[in-house]
Amino acid sequence: MKLTVYLAGQIHDNWRDEVAKRAEEKNLPLTFVSPQTNHDRSDSIGEAILGEQPGKLYKDDVASDINNFRTQVLMQKSDIVIALFGEKYKQWNTAMDASTAIAMNKPTIIIRPESLIHPLKELSNKANVTVETVDQALDVIGYIYE
Amino acid sequence: MKLTVYLAGQIHDNWRDEVAKRAEEKNLPLTFVSPQTNHDRSDSIGEAILGEQPGKLYKDDVASDINNFRTQVLMQKSDIVIALFGEKYKQWNTAMDASTAIAMNKPTIIIRPESLIHPLKELSNKANVTVETVDQALDVIGYIYE
Amino acid sequence: MKLTVYLAGQIHDNWRDEVAKRAEEKNLPLTFVSPQTNHDRSDSIGEAILGEQPGKLYKDDVASDINNFRTQVLMQKSDIVIALFGEKYKQWNTAMDASTAIAMNKPTIIIRPESLIHPLKELSNKANVTVETVDQALDVIGYIYE
Amino acid sequence: MKLTVYLAGQIHDNWRDEVAKRAEEKNLPLTFVSPQTNHDRSDSIGEAILGEQPGKLYKDDVASDINNFRTQVLMQKSDIVIALFGEKYKQWNTAMDASTAIAMNKPTIIIRPESLIHPLKELSNKANVTVETVDQALDVIGYIYE
Amino acid sequence: MKLTVYLAGQIHDNWRDEVAKRAEEKNLPLTFVSPQTNHDRSDSIGEAILGEQPGKLYKDDVASDINNFRTQVLMQKSDIVIALFGEKYKQWNTAMDASTAIAMNKPTIIIRPESLIHPLKELSNKANVTVETVDQALDVIGYIYE
Amino acid sequence: MKLTVYLAGQIHDNWRDEVAKRAEEKNLPLTFVSPQTNHDRSDSIGEAILGEQPGKLYKDDVASDINNFRTQVLMQKSDIVIALFGEKYKQWNTAMDASTAIAMNKPTIIIRPESLIHPLKELSNKANVTVETVDQALDVIGYIYE
Amino acid sequence: MKLTVYLAGQIHDNWRDEVAKRAEEKNLPLTFVSPQTNHDRSDSIGEAILGEQPGKLYKDDVASDINNFRTQVLMQKSDIVIALFGEKYKQWNTAMDASTAIAMNKPTIIIRPESLIHPLKELSNKANVTVETVDQALDVIGYIYE
Amino acid sequence: MKLTVYLAGQIHDNWRDEVAKRAEEKNLPLTFVSPQTNHDRSDSIGEAILGEQPGKLYKDDVASDINNFRTQVLMQKSDIVIALFGEKYKQWNTAMDASTAIAMNKPTIIIRPESLIHPLKELSNKANVTVETVDQALDVIGYIYE
Q1: CB of A58 within 8 Å of any CB in chain C?
Q2: What is the crossing angle of helices H15-25 and H134-144, to 10°?
Q3: Rounded Cα gap, residues A44 and A66, in angstroms
Q4: E-assigned strands of chain E?
Q5: Distance of alpha carbon E41 from alpha carbon C143, whole angstroms
Q6: Would you say E112 and E120 are in contact if contact means Cβ atoms under 8 Å apart?
Q7: Which has the closest alpha carbon to H106: H143, H78, H126, H129?
Q8: Average pLDDT in the A63-79 region?
Q9: Domains of chain G in sequence order
């Protein structure tokens, strides 16, 4: 049984490659989808398609139109959502994607370091499972195939 | 990941062919579906199947039965809806299809010329993205595959 | 049994007052809600609350945020939607409100002149009832109380 | 028409009292509900009811059980959600509540300072309206009653 | 706890009065709603509001628009549906109302004579309870108040 | 685009074979599913699996368990429902299946002879299209592929 | 804000009276509803209304029709569900009611003794909160009103 | 037409192998999925992935996170649910899975011995079909393919 997994979370390092590599090592038949992971592209996509905007608010709003469009298409196609939180950045998109997934009844795993237990406690409580590493998240998914 | 795209909008020129051609040039794995694009066929389909009706109201109503049936089947099968508005025609079907798609949580792109910004402002605001050209709409969809 | 009725449609004349007056004459226990009917207020509400915007597109978009907010609150509170179409104006908001109501399973009545039978045929076909006058629409609602 | 408004956001100052006071000044018939606003009580409610837990993770998890229970009851009873973001704190609960409200089709207003435009851009884009002050949020709600 | 009960079924005798009388004798706090019970009115309501139609098919269709509108409004307001089948008439509206109620998760009671066990067996099986008399149906509802 | 069509209706003659044959002649890529069409098997399936029952009511109820199970599985898998009514039999299952399909937003076609216009008028009005022959129903579906 | 609470669980002692008494002492504005708590009445209600059945299986099935009807009506009217598990009895109805409530997004509290931690672990994990005493459950609800 | 069947029930013997074997003998094109059937693995999966916990309650809760995650993924992928009850064990997970499936509109078969008729009567009444043996359950599914 093939499953599609949406990888929500920051786009400042290549953690998604790590996920894909470990999934392959574990022979899990998973397809991964995600938000745009090129940060500059994600910020500028609105102006790239719709042209220059009259200020940062407007540039951000048109970029968001298109980023949200992408996320909605891909999350509707997904069977599982993994949301990774790290110690840097505000990560409100990660919280938004995880919360939306939970409200859509998508089975959801949160990955977060121990240092974030307290500020993420209500969201962790609503997700199915909260773990600390990518490996643990894939072990949770791998458990489906045992 | 293959996606099915419903192309709502006027059926007086061949803009859908343009969409398909540009999608092919961009190598996007999209399947396009749409309302009946032969205008006469669309208007006469009710009488063609159900026989002559006692007046225009009744002719229109039986045609609508069958046009709405087609749209409902195809929109339920679609992952994305593009709705194109032009400067001519009332285009209430385009507004109806876009609004229905949004209410069904289908990710939706509106294409409209600058001249229609004002009368379409509330509908544009509810759609995911509003652009001015077919090319821009396909760039938005292409962004999913980056 | 009291019912709340959302009155979608153009805001260029006082047809809603006529609806309310006739409902009172017929002793129907209805509460009417509607979009903002002051046209200037509707167009300028975005800038009135959020401040001047850098152009018409942006002015329209912030106005739409707030008009759509109002409509969403009031339509969710309504038991019935009446959508009136006239011969003037594009009336895409009317088409949007009627289509959204139908998609939300709100019982919906369309009022339109005979001249609009053809361009509204698919939307009329999806609504519960299509009539030509305010009086007929209230007779349809009055029938619930017989 | 009375409306119930859920006030999501940080619980470190009395901004909700300000909201209630301004609503009263504007004669808006609103009932406000919210998460527990006593921060210590919110953190300790789990142990207060369920007894001492074997560590911070567990203390947080039982508190979250009860905080999430409260939020679910009250948000289901609400017609509108206001989510206020400030410059301090991680505010993932605010993002979670706003995202959940949007996914539940609750009309949603975000209040955030200009400095947070960029990190909140996707969430703002999904909310109905984004403003910068409590007063603006109440003006948006007041517009329903015009 | 007051409950609203939709009474689906034939409109050729006054069985609904019997239901109301027995509910009153049992002191059950129920409000009853129903389709139009004046048979002529039900058949002619379309032409009464929309004017003469060009034939029986069209007369029936406009009557159905308005009868279905009424039923949709009242069934959405109901907590319980009772559907009574008798030995005469085709009663496809009764089957339609019962099936729609079940699909909407409305708790549903069917009343039918012993002679109809076989042709109603699949519908009875999907309803919550099937009884043979009005009194039994009210006993089932009365059980809620014990 | 392959579509699955549920064929609701009486099981006393081989009309479904006619549908399949005509669909093949028209080269429509349709898969047909249906209730059990062997009437004796349909009536006795409960006792065949669960053993002899203490009377006709109980025999019918266990058969209905299994017939409803089959219909629920197959209708959930279907994109379109055709419901055929004829002049004989009570056909409450046909009415039940058509009404359930409509409530599930399955695009629905009713086939009925002219003689049944009046008793089926409300159900016809809720279906997408009503026709008189199998050929017309397939023409409606064929229109999707034009 | 008044709330209605469904009390699922065994009907062999008067624990619901205890809940009501403690709620009154705490001045909580709660209305309690529940399954039939007279065990004999619950078992015999089917035969009481529908007459003697041909065996225990059939007696149980008709009683269940009516008990499930009652539960469906009352749970749909409830804002919160409390499900109490004790050390005796199989309590599959309690598990069914709690699971149904959770699937309906009703905020749910489980009360169970420490001895049942293990066999209830998956269900506890899906409920909002799990406590050991009636008092704790009311403290959780009381927290909504702080 | 291939169908996926979730097999809920105790994990103390190999009844699922029996189901698969009989399905193969009957040539039914079914794919079976299930909870983790290795009992020790199911109990220890939480600690295996998340590390040692401070007590049995906590060990059980982390195991439940992951078991519920697995069940949610697999049940969403299933077309049919079979829930088997035996005479031993509390089997609250079986009741939970069956109740959840029914609330999700998954067609559901219960297998239980005659001795459990009474305690399972309400749940049996809500399921589509209740049988006593694995063979009967497969006959019910096989009936779809006749």
Answers
A1: yes
A2: 40
A3: 10
A4: 3-9, 30-33, 80-84, 108-111, 129-131
A5: 10
A6: yes
A7: H78
A8: 98
A9: 3-36+77-144 (3.40.50.450)
> Does the beta-carbon distance from B1 to A49 stay under 8 Å?
no
With an 8 Å CB cutoff and a minimum of 3 pairs, decide whether chains E and C touch: yes
| One-letter amino acid of E85 | F
Question: Which residues have C-beta within 8 Å of that of residue F6, sequence separation ≥ 6?
Answer: F32, F33, F34, F74, F75, F78, F80, F81, F82, F97, F101, F106
**pLDDT tens track, chain C, 146 positions:** 999 999 999 988 899 999 999 999 999 999 999 999 999 999 999 999 999 999 999 999 999 999 999 999 999 999 999 999 999 999 999 999 999 999 999 999 999 999 999 999 999 999 999 999 999 999 999 999 99
CA angle at C29 for the pair C24 and C30, rounded to the nearest 5°: 85
**Are the C-beta atoms of B138 and B22 separated by less than 8 Å?**
yes
- Element containing residue B6 per DSSP (H, E): strand B3-9
Note whether A66 contacts B143, CB cutoff 8 Å.
yes
pTM over 0.90? The answer is yes
Query: Is the model's pLDDT at H12 over the cut of 90?
Result: no
Measured distance CA(G46)–CA(G55) in Å, rounded:
12
**Burial class of residue F111 (count of CB atoms within 10 Å of its CB; 0-12, 13-18, 19+):** buried
pLDDT tens for chain G, residues 1 to 146 = 999 999 999 988 899 999 999 999 999 999 999 999 999 999 999 999 999 999 999 999 999 999 999 999 999 999 999 999 999 989 999 999 999 999 999 999 999 999 999 999 999 999 999 999 999 999 999 999 99
> Would an 8 Å CB–CB cutoff place F132 in contact with chain E?
no
DSSP for chain G? --EEEEEEE--SS-HHHHHHHHHHHTT--EEEE-S---HHHHHHHHHHHH---SSHHHHHHHHHHHHHHHHHHHHHT-SEEEEE--SSS--HHHHHHHHHHHHTT--EEEE--GGGTTTTHHHHHHSSEEESSHHHHHHHHHHHT-
Annotate C72-110 with DSSP letters as a single string. HHHHHT-SEEEEE--SSS--HHHHHHHHHHHHTT--EEE
The reported pLDDT for the residue numbered E52 is 98
Using the beta-carbon criterion (under 8 Å), do F131 and B74 form an inter-chain contact? Answer: no
Enumerate neighbours of H (3 or more CB pairs within 8 A).
A, D, F, G
Q: Which residues of G touch F54 (CB under 8 A)?
A: 54-55, 58
F34: nearest CA in chain H? H144
Nearest CA in chain A to D87: A90
**Closest Cβ opposite residue H73 in set A80, A136, A139:** A80
Q: For residue G73, give the chain E residue with the closest CA.
A: E107
Query: How far is Cα H92 from Cα H31, in angstroms, rounded to an integer?
Result: 25
The CA-to-CA distance between both ends of chain E, in Å, stands at 12
Q: Does B67 touch chain C (CB under 8 A)?
A: yes
E81: tokens are 């549906």
**3-state secondary structure (DSSP) of residue D109:** strand
ipTM, two decimals: 0.96
* Contacts across the B-C interface (CB distance below 8 Å): 90
How many whole angstroms separate alpha carbon C144 and alpha carbon F138?
37
Instruction: Please judge whether H146 and F41 are an interchain contact, meaning their C-beta atoms are less than 8 angstroms apart.
Output: yes
Residue A19 and residue A137 in contact, taking contact as beta carbons nearer than 8 Å:
yes
Instruction: Retrieve residue G96's tokens.
Output: 């069914």
| CB atoms C92 and B119 under 8 Å | yes
Mean pLDDT, residues E42-62: 98
Distance CA H118, CA B138 (A): 61
Please judge whether G50 and E131 are an interchain contact, meaning their C-beta atoms are less than 8 angstroms apart: yes
Residue G102 in contact with partner chain H when CB distance is under 8 A: yes
DSSP, collapsed to helix, strand or coil, labels residue E7 as strand
CA pair distance A50, A47, nearest whole angstrom: 5
Nearest CB among B31, B33, B72 relative to F128 is that of B72
